[in-house]
Amino acid sequence: MHFEQLKFAALWIMATSLAGVLSAPAQADEFTQADLNRWQEQYAKVVKDGRELWTSSKLGSNGVACVQCHPNAADTHPETYPKFQKQLGKVAPIWEMINWCIQNPLEGKALAADDYKMIALQAYITEERRGVKLAPGKH
Amino acid sequence: MSKSINRRDFLKGAGVLAVAGALPVSMVELAFADSAQNFSFAYISDAHLQQIKGAKFVNNWDRGLIRAVAEANLLTPKPDFIVFGGDLAQLGKKAELDHGAEILSALRSNKVYHVMGEHDYYLDLGQYWEKLFGPQFYSFDHKGVHFVVLNSILTYDDWTYKRWPTAEQRMLEMADLDNPNGSPFMVGDKQRDWLKTDLEKINKATPIVVISHSPLQKIYKNWNFWTDDAEQVQALLRPFNKVTVLYGHVHQIQYNQIGNISFNSVMSTAWPWPYPSTYAQAEQYLPKLTVPMNRADPFFERDATGWQFINLSNGNVDMHYDLFSNTNRTVAFNTKTGEPEDTVFQSPDKHIPPQTQY
């Protein structure tokens, strides 16, 4: 290809992609109050689902619910994770402790780390703990 | 009761109970100058027996109550009676109450006094419970002490009778401690009138022990660590020299002194509860006096349950907590300050890291 042709082609590509950007809806650095509201709603929905799981007699197999020992998710300390979990003998993230509770007092099956239920449970716990300073590693 | 005991008749007894092991029951000793009058009683509470299906129940909670019963049977000297402090069932079902009654029937005791808990009540409003255990509130006298048992877990009539389409839903709404659809506990006008009449005939020097399920003081409303008409009940108790309120419901160590009234909680046989101060969004009033129990280790099913015996010498309570896999605690009435105090941990510089609740 001749150099001039190449230069033209490059300019053409730049021009069309720029046009694409300008004609697309606002992206990374631009969002509106409506976006913020929508994202908050999405978050609130997951927290709500988490609360439902927290109080559900169906999360495990024996009818026991998380809320029986942890009203308002108290005594779960999400701000302290990851930390050395002395009973596990290693540094653990909070979802491993949630699974421990599901498997033992609830006599249920462990959830995958990225299971929607696990995400919802963590969202609920963290929401109830809002405002508390992060303290990773604290026992 | 034929005879009132003057508080000077109260003397600390020589024989303090020595019980081996950590028992999830509360041992109560009332010591008198006349050793023939000495007596003790055991206090078991908050078993929360939970039916899974048919004859299957949650094993964890069963084990707590079975153990308490077995160990209460080993107490020497044999307690005069047992108190069961309420929440025998989880959802008030006949099957759960029957299951509990069967486990409790192994108690080698002449008498078990029962207290109504919300988990026993809100399915059929205590009907089946009454059939098994008797009236929902009553008083009795035992060797110079006047005992009153109240049903303190009642609530507003609108909530109880009008709000819920089914009894099952009503029970479920009250069962979750933190449910915003719940309703504050109360003793209510009817029982307070009864209590007033009941206490009129009692000598003001007679020691009074009031037993309720919820604390007859206000700590945290949303979890019902609370009784809505607590002040009105306290007012009825004020004319007496020595009053002790013993309560369950909270599944944790609490103690307090309000005027002449000492408050002491008892442990659950099933599971411990967090202190309300650990709920970051809550405004709560845990008595400043209370040095908390150690944070529970969930990997030990019976951790943060325990037993205590109570020495009621001179009409004041000395509470000895023997805690499963934790350091024992003694909360004794300090006659100088007029308050119950932990004999080791009361001073802030004596607190240990596991007592930090957050």
TrEMBL record, chain A:
SUPFAM superfamilies: Cytochrome c (SSF46626). This is Cytochrome c domain-containing protein. Keywords: Heme, Iron, Metal-binding, Signal. The keyword Heme applies. It comes from the Bacteria. Residues 1-28 form the signal peptide. The lineage of its organism: Bacteria, Pseudomonadati, Pseudomonadota, Betaproteobacteria, Nitrosomonadales. GO terms for molecular function: electron transfer activity; heme binding; metal ion binding. It holds the Pfam family SoxA-TsdA_cyt-c. The keyword Nucleotide-binding does not apply. Residues 49-133 form the Cytochrome c domain.
Automatic annotation (TrEMBL), chain B:
The keyword Phosphoprotein does not apply. PROSITE patterns: TAT. It comes from the Bacteria. One of its GO terms (molecular function) is hydrolase activity. Pfam families: Metallophos, TAT_signal. Keywords: Hydrolase. InterPro entries: Calcineurin-like_PHP, Metallo-depent_PP-like, STPP_CPPED1, TAT_signal, TAT_signal_bac_arc. Residues 41-252 form the Calcineurin-like phosphoesterase domain. Residues 338-358 are annotated as: Disordered. PANTHER family: METALLOPHOSPHOESTERASE, CALCINEURIN SUPERFAMILY (PTHR43143), SERINE_THREONINE-PROTEIN PHOSPHATASE CPPED1 (PTHR43143:SF1). This is Predicted phosphohydrolases.
